[in-house]
Amino acid sequence: MEKKSGFLGLFNQTYPGNNVVFLHCVIHQDALCKSALNMKPVLDAVVKLVNTIRSRGLTHRRFRDFLQSVQSEYSDVLYYTKVRWFNAGCVFERVWQLKDDIVSLFHEEQCSAEFNMLEDTEWLSDFAFFTDLLCHMNNLNVKM
Description:
The chain is mainly α and 144 residues long. The protein contains six helices and no strands. It has one domain (27-143). It is elongated.
């Protein structure tokens, strides 16, 4: 049954065959964003990167020492957990802030081939977009 009254009805009459998604609630738009956008390749790469740094004791220690030696604003990367969507924004933002330091460390340790996406401009533009999107969603969730 097609709606004929209200904004949705008028919009559908004026613009038939549109691809617009109408939402009645902004609280759960994060789930819609995740399903509508192809975030999986970027999310998987960031999670792999974080897990590589955090799960290996020696690498993690060297990374923290490296950040301290370059006097970075941050002292570590954050773990990603699937339990909360909110966590993804924090992880993405931290990795974005530390991406140059991460590249430097991996070049220094000669294992940069594993994470060459940090030097790929197309992947970095997707990563920047998702970082901004997730940070905005986090701010919205906090305000609500």
